[in-house]
Amino acid sequence: MTPVPLRTSPRTALHIDVTDSPLPVAEMIDWATVPECGAVVTFTGTVREYSVPLGGPSAGNVTAIEYETFATSAVSRMQEVAEAALDRWPQTRRIALVHRAGLVATGEAAVLVAVSAGHRTQAFLAAQFCIDVLKAAVPVWKLEHRQGQGTSWVETGNLITDVAVAAHEWEPYS
Q1: Sequence-separated (6 or more) residues with CB below 8 Å from residue 73
Q2: Which domain of life is it from (predicted)?
Q3: Residue from 45, 115, 113 nearest 86 by CA
Q4: What range does the domain containing 60 cover?
Q5: Is residue 159 part of a domain?
Q6: Reduced to 3 states, what is the DSSP secondary structure of residue 16?
Q7: 112: CATH
Q8: Distance between CA atoms of residues 158 and 37, nearest Å
């Protein structure tokens, strides 16, 4: 899939993508690093070996997660997330949001957020906002693969909300 450069101006740029390839973490950090910004904050979400199902005990032996999405819809929602972050933190200069699709093995990166801003506080808050609202509002479904136990859908994918609602309800962790 081809990345979609959005809201590009001399001072602000977005890089939004859904890809079936490994995430370009170092490349996105380089892209987000610009001379007028003193902070680049990244978040990389990886596939872990266990999950915590809703209302149940921890389920182990996860070997991979298969991410399913409609790329066009996911990219559109991710753009809304990034633009909502820019509205809150206008001094932000670059935001990259990249999500994997397809089968992703344990330990591999599944989602990447990279944010650059003039100062660390704005970069940290914008990055946290982006991942939290992305998780709440971008239509990505997860099928967990477990060693010797088959597969099962992660129920949280059913709780997708509107970006504006998720952005309005967002509060940073204290």
Answers
A1: 139
A2: Bacteria
A3: 115
A4: 4-169
A5: yes
A6: strand
A7: 3.90.1170.40
A8: 37
Q: Token pair of 68, please?
A: 């399913």
Q: Which amino acid is present at 1?
A: M
22, part of any domain: yes
pTM above threshold 0.85:
yes
- Is residue 81 one of the residues assigned to a domain? yes
In eight-state DSSP terms, residue 87 is H
Model confidence at 88: pLDDT above 60:
yes
Retrieve residue 149's tokens: 């136990």
* Mean pLDDT rounded to a whole number for the chain: 88
Beta bridge partners of 104: 65
Are the beta carbons of 120 and 38 closer than 8 angstroms? Answer: yes
Question: 143, 59 in Cβ contact below 8 A?
Answer: no
For the chain, how big is the Rg over CA atoms in Å?
Answer: 16
Residue 174 within a domain: no
Rounded Cα–Cα distance for residues 163 and 149 (Å): 35
CA 148, 22, 79, 93 torsion-angle sign: positive
Q: Which two tokens stand for residue 141?
A: 């479904």
**Type of residue found at 84:** A
Query: Domain tally for the chain?
Result: 1
